[in-house]
Design a protein that fits this description.
This protein is mainly alpha-helical. The chain has two helices and no strands. The longest helix is centred in the first third of the chain and has 24 residues.
């Protein structure tokens, strides 16, 4: 049976959560302007394509 300091465990869990959040932020905000524009145009193109295939009753 091992003893675990609850405060150390809590701090370790918080640190892991902060690392995960930092990784998400790097993906979201670490893109160039061209990459952001390309992603925006791709989503717009996909939306137009989907709207064009919609059947009206």
């Amino acid at each position: 049976m091992t003893l675990v300091s609850l405060s150390k465990a809590r701090k370790a869990r918080a640190k892991a959560a902060e690392k995960a959040q930092a990784a998400e932020n790097r993906v979201a905000f670490g893109r160039t302007k061209a990459e952001k524009a390309q992603a925006k145009s791709e989503t717009a193109r996909a939306a137009r394509s989907l709207d064009g295939k919609r059947l009206e009753p």
